[in-house]
Write a structure and sequence with these properties.
11 strands; alpha/beta; nine-stranded mixed β-sheet; Inosine-uridine Nucleoside N-ribohydrolase, Chain A; two-stranded antiparallel sheet; 14 helices; single chain; 17% strand
Length: 346
């Protein structure tokens, strides 16, 4: 028999505690290493808090990109959110200020507010960004932990494409890339054919989707099914979650935009649904095939998946490209329950 921490002799009890302690230690040692590439953004904020609250993953860094705000503001917000979440030492590496082609990016501050956090104008972070830029940080971490790092890309794919272009081994050494992007037979949110993250840098997206990385893509066809109502937001506000009131306040600007844009008295959970695909892939089903992005014309940013339904005669841009997995169905209530369980956690 072994002495338990109270000093009592109780073989059965001690073995159980010992097993639990060993199991918890094993889980801590084998948590998945995750880098979040992000443009926070209110729904990015929710996904980031989910990641920090999860016991199954270890966030080893954030990289920032333009999209919901410009890249410098994304960096400020990422540093701030790490501090609010209680992880001020997690490195934040700033990414590209412009698209892969060098053009100025489209910024969606009309959706997320001038500060990206619902015009709540939070205090400036105490921490500082990493000396490495985003693509170099991604390359360094994947080289340090080959086949162990998962990147969750919540914004335009510029940083990921730059890493692929700089390092030919990067894509194959990633454990997984989970992307929020595309629409897949659903209406876009920039214009009818295009989703915002892909539209912002379609050349980068096409490079990423044809890179051979182990890629999962979650698009608007799923994320627009997962909605938090005013009641759901109030539930989070009134919970014992460490950031419940903060989340609620930030979401009010975002909610007002959904009423104006989509006649929806609630918010779409775009980024949280993508994070849920990492945390519990069983909540989704998938189609697998070659995925290409239109880079010019009136359908720029459109994503089209070859689902393998036809044996093509002749050549086309999908033939010979590596497959990606695209989310096809979603357990809406399961995702909402997962999001709530993490955002309401003390």
């Amino acid at each position: 028999m072994v002495l338990n921490i109270e000093g009592e002799m109780d073989g059965t009890h001690i073995e159980s505690d010992g097993f639990n302690l060993h199991f918890q230690a094993h889980k801590q040692l084998h948590r998945r290493k995750v880098i979040i590439d992000t443009d926070p953004g209110i729904d990015d904020m929710m996904a980031i808090f989910m990641a920090f609250q999860s016991q199954d993953i270890e966030v080893i860094g954030l990289t920032t990109v333009f999209g919901n705000v410009d890249t410098p503001m994304s960096t400020i917000n990422a540093l701030h959110l790490c501090e609010v979440a209680g992880f001020p030492t997690v490195p934040v590496a700033e990414g590209s200020l412009v698209t892969l082609k060098g053009t100025l990016p489209r910024i969606a501050d009309f959706v997320h507010g001038a500060d990206g956090l619902g015009n709540t104008f939070q205090a400036k972070p105490k921490g500082f960004k990493s000396e490495s830029n985003a693509s170099d940080f991604l390359i360094q971490k994947v080289a340090e932990f080959p086949n162990e790092v998962t990147v969750v890309a919540l914004g335009p794919l510029t940083n990921i494409a730059e890493a692929i272009q700089k390092d030919p081994t990067f894509a194959n050494n990633l454990a997984q890339l989970v992307v929020l992007g595309g629409s897949f037979f659903a209406t876009g949110n920039v214009n009818p054919p295009a989703e915002a993250n892909i539209y912002c840098d379609p050349e980068a997206a096409d490079i990423v989707f044809t890179s051979g990385a182990n890629t999962v893509v979650i698009g608007l066809n799923l994320t627009t099914q997962v909605i938090f109502t005013a009641g759901d937001l109030q539930e989070i506000r009134d919970s014992k979650g460490r950031n419940g009131a903060y989340l609620y306040d930030c979401c009010q600007f975002y909610k007002a935009w959904h009423i104006k844009s989509d006649n929806l008295d609630g918010i779409f959970l775009h980024d949280p649904t993508c994070m849920a695909a990492l945390l519990d892939p069983s909540l989704f089903t998938y189609k697998t095939g070659a995925l290409r992005v239109e880079t010019k014309g009136i359908c720029v940013g459109h994503t089209l998946l070859d689902m393998g339904l036809k044996n093509w005669v002749g050549e086309n841009p999908w033939i010979g490209q590596p497959p990606v997995k695209v989310g096809w169905t979603v357990d809406v209530e399961g995702v909402k329950a997962l999001v709530k369980s993490l955002l309401c956690r003390p």
